[in-house]
Amino acid sequence: MSQTAHIPSHRKPRRGASKLAFRAGVAGGVFSTIAVAGAAAPANAEPVTETTLEMPTLGSLDADLAGAVSASAEASQQEALDQHLAAQEKAALEKAAKDAKKAKAEADRKAEAEKAEKARAEARERASRTAERTSLSTSSYSASDSGSSSSSRVATGSAAAIVAFARAQVGDAYVSGGTGPNSWDCSGLVQAAYRQAGIDLPRVSSSQSSMGTSVSLSDLQPGDILYWGSRSGSYHVAIYVGGGKYVGAQNPSTGVVERDMDWDPPSGAVRIL
């Protein structure tokens, strides 16, 4: 065994080949620069004052590199955080817009329902306001037209409800195909009036005039349906309200009106009640 085998080595670890090459290159470059400068100087030139150049050490270069890497990592982390926050903000805005759209649709639906209910309530209120007045009005018509047997009859019960509803719509517009609450055609008004008495009539005038029993125009009762044309092919209907008068949705020019029988004499009448 060698006599020095037991003695541990105290030599410093060898530097990496890349670090040694880098230092050699830096030193060689410096010495070459100094040598060239000396050779180029003229013989009688003044002595050049020696200048000591302080070269960057490997430690400072490593520190600069580590700082740059750290700054790049922080920038990447900040960019990722910004993108995450932007995605969260976009999702929140989209959810808010969706919730607002849903709330608006629900509000519109409720508004339409309230509007329809209000219209129905107004129609019921108008019918109620005129219910009592109808009986008195019919009585006064009977007194003024006492010569006619049909004009002396007063609407009662279901007939009173039908007459009251019809008169409550006077002044509403005429619209072809209209079924209320504020616009009607002739058969739409008759159908709605009879619904107040719990009676469902067909939708069109020719079918309505085919219902019930045919009665003479000299023996009319309030609530009877008047028709124009043939009974099975009528083109217009109205409601007899007593006192020699009827209520009907006439045309777009007049709307719903109350007229004397002789203003436009009907062709016939039917009784449903």
How would you classify the helix and strand content by structural class?
alpha+beta
Widest sheet: strand order? 3-8-4-5-6-7
Mean pLDDT: 76
CATH architecture field of the domain at 126-271: Alpha-Beta Complex
Helical content (DSSP H or I, runs of 4+): 40-55%
Give the overall shape: rod-shaped
Number of helices: 5
Quaternary organization: single chain
The first-level CATH class of the domain at 126-271 is given as Alpha Beta
CATH homology superfamily name of the domain at 126-271? endopeptidase domain like (from Nostoc punctiforme)
- The beta-strand count equals 8
Rg computed from alpha carbons, rounded to a whole number of angstroms:
53 Å
Measured between the Cα atoms of the first and last residue, the distance is 139 Å
Strand content: 5-15%
Which fold name is given in CATH as the topology of the domain at 126-271? endopeptidase fold (from Nostoc punctiforme)
Q: What is the H/E order?
A: HHHEEHHEEEEEE
Q: Name the poorly predicted regions.
A: 1-5, 17-22, 30-41, 132-152
Major sheet characteristics: 6 strands, antiparallel
List the helices and strands and how they pair.
Elements: H1 17-40, H2 58-144, H3 157-168, E1 173-174, E2 183-184, H4 186-195, H5 205-208, E3 213-215, E4 225-230, E5 233-242, E6 245-251, E7 255-260, E8 268-271
Helix pairs in contact: 2-3, 3-4
Task: Describe what this molecule looks like in 3D.
The chain is α+β, with helices and mostly antiparallel strands and 273 residues long. The protein has a domain at 126-271: Alpha-Beta Complex (endopeptidase fold (from Nostoc punctiforme)), CATH 3.90.1720.10. 50% of the residues lie in helices and 15% in strands. The protein has 5 helices and 8 strands; from the N terminus they run αααββααββββββ. The chain has helices at residues 17-40, 58-144, 157-168, 186-195, 205-208, and strands at 173-174, 183-184, 213-215, 225-230, 233-242, 245-251, 255-260, 268-271. The strands form 2 sheets. Strands 3-8-4-5-6-7 form a 6-stranded antiparallel beta sheet. A two-stranded parallel sheet has the order 1-2. Helix 3 packs across helix 4. The chain is rod-shaped and about 130 Å long. The N and C termini lie far apart (139 Å). The model is unreliable at 1-5, 17-22, 30-41 and 132-152 (pLDDT under 50).
